[in-house]
Design brief:
Elements: E1 2-8, E2 15-19, E3 22-26, H1 35-48, E4 52-56, E5 62-67
Parallel strand pairs: 1-3
Antiparallel strand pairs: 1-5, 2-3, 4-5
């Protein structure tokens, strides 16, 4: 499954929430040295229970991710 997400780095809490037709991932990790991307993959893996890979937008707040293999 491929989905579009919006990432909010340096948030107060780690959270995955639905907002309209996309998911919003809030992470306490800063957008420095790929820390936010690693945190997003970890949060989404916990949310879906499957591996998650960022396939587009690694340097953007809007990302496209693949859930599963």
């Amino acid at each position: 499954m491929i989905i579009t997400i919006k990432v909010i780095p340096s948030a107060k809490v780690n959270r995955v929430e639905s907002q309209g037709d996309r998911l919003v991932v809030r992470t306490t990790a800063p957008a420095v040295d790929d820390k936010a991307n690693v945190a997003v993959e970890r949060l989404l893996k916990a949310h879906f229970g499957q591996p998650v890979t960022i396939i587009r937008g690694s340097h953007s707040r809007t990302k496209v991710v693949r859930v599963g293999s």
